[in-house]
Amino acid sequence: LFFYLQEVVSEESEEESNGVNLMEFSDEILLHILSYVPCTDLVLNVRRTCRKLATLCLDKSLTHTVLLQKDYKVNKDKVKQLMRDIGKEIYQLNMAGCYWLPSSTIDHVTRCKNLVKLNLSGCHVTSLRLSKMLSTLQHLRSLAIDVNPGFDASQLSSECKATLSRVSELKQTLYTPSYGVVPCCTSLEKLLLYFEILDRSREGFMLSGQLMVGESNVPHYQNLRIFYARLAPGYVNQEVVRLYLAVLSDRTPENLHAFLISAPGSFAETGATKNLLDSMARNVRLDALQLPKAWINGSGLLQHLKFNNPFYFSFSRCTLSGGHLIQRVINGGKDLKSLTSLNLSGCVHCLAPESLFRKAEDDIDSSILESLVVSCCNLRHLNLSAAHHHSSESIGNHLCQLLSRLKHLLSLALPVCSITDVAASVEKPPTTPNLVPQTFGRKVRIGIQTYPRNLGDQANQKIESSVFWALMGSLRFLETLEIIGSSFSSAMPRNEPAIRNSLPPCVRAQSVGDSEVAAISQLTYLQSLTLAQLPNILTGSGLINIGLQCQHLRTLSLANLGMMGKVVYMSALMDMLKHCKCLRDLRLEQPYFCAGAQFFQALSHCSSLQRLCIVSRSGTLQSDAVMSFMANCLEVIMCHMFMGESLTVCKNLQQSIVRSFQAERPALNVVIFPLLHEDLTEVIRDVPMRHLDEITLFKSRVAEEPPNLWW
């Protein structure tokens, strides 16, 4: 845009235009256009093109909030100049995930005397630098920081603590056992805690969840309205979060209306947490709730909790039955018009009347889903993944038909077996390719039937009459879609060695393939798509139609499609990529994936691509093709490849990429490593949290946390 504006201004004086040129637009229209330009470009480049733009680029509507969190081209010098030019005009500054900036960059934030909101998550900030910076920000009310090993609260000055005492919103990511700055924040209304503490040090020593000496100060929760804690795997994280919760169990804040704890695996309930929940049941009315599964399973807690106007519920991985869901949560279908986000991921019995004698693969009770749809008619985010939701043969009661009534949905996650037509899954035997065992054994040569690659041919066969086709047609404004096999697990879980074997797909999912993928192309406004463990992919032809029709697609994640011993959709994927001009993030997980010259040549058409992650057991790559791709795609700042190549090949390629492109791409993060190497977990721990959480690790992200939890 900068160079275009320069050209417009220079040509304006040389020739008359028969139409209206850009500079003749009203200030309101120009300000709207300029709002899409990164602030660094506005202040440091665009405003130098002409007098009119020089004035507009400094308009308060453009300088009030400065977002640097995904401006991967920003460096220390640009930040310094930006703060010098407009520091006093900035009221909200977001530098989240700017891991490449040196810690000294934070010193320039002191120029922003009027800051009200500041996000430094993912930035390198020491205790002393934090103290110096906060001492000057007297108007600050919202803060997000990381607490790393070596953090010492005793180094915070009295002026810094005075600023913290006025902070009402705090987001704190912990990489070491600590209270961080929480005890200093005596006016907290919103507290978000992310626990990323590892159980072992780099030297292999077991870590303790005990807080450091001098950190016995008690947090102040009396004004707390929102408490959110997300735990990474590990017992140390559980130990530390219990220390934060201990104060809440003594006295529950009267104004608490959102209580959310996201904990993987088993997080046992204790006497203190039971007292906390009992106190909440007596004294507060909640609008948002998420609890570890052990705290809900087998208890009558939900029967006693009171809700006001709930907007978010998460019962992920709980054994909550549909009967309890209807009776105890939505009051028999009442009072949930306010609910906008619901996470039932891994809640295997949530659509069945009871769970005592039910098998996970049994058919769902459509009346429960219908009650849910009717009472939660304003849902915008719904996650039903990681479970077997099998519809019965009753006409009009298929899960897809019932979900089509939710016209406000923006994001949706479903298991693969839930989208199949019942008649097709019962009457149609699996195709020949699916008779091949889903294991990583020796390749088996088999015949594959001729299959049409044209969407029109597919439509004539079955697609337009399927319930999934109708669902996609009814959710035209859907922005995020995840279709994930109920038994799928990524080959690269967190803090553990790579998984060598995968579970076979659900029997009901055997018929889901190219035609269902083609149905997704109806989603004109789709921005993020995840497809995992679709066993009947034969050519991947539906991907081409998605590339042609879904022109807003920014994030694409494909995993274990079709046969496991061969990448059957490679040709279609390459055709698709040629049309994905807006694609920014691409994640591919597939055994035996060949990242060669043809693939990278097709990928080079994705001119907006910023992040690439490939996970492939026994996968191969061509180093020259990777280097050529990196040279052609100037926006790429993350390249993660976990393949079957040797450690020497991986290290040499990684070093070559860093040497060639790091200077001109300050945010460049490259990790190329053998997937099954014993040191993989050590390599993973050095990946910036922004990339690790958003793309490198596979997970369902629909309704993962409440909408607009943080800015």
From TrEMBL:
GO terms for biological process: SCF-dependent proteasomal ubiquitin-dependent protein catabolic process. InterPro entries: F-box-like_dom_sf (IPR036047), F-box_dom (IPR001810), FBXL18_F-box (IPR047948), FBXL18_LRR (IPR045627), LRR_dom_sf (IPR032675). Residues 19-66 form the F-box domain. It comes from the Eukaryota. GO terms for cellular component: SCF ubiquitin ligase complex. This is FXL18 protein. The gene is Fbxl18.
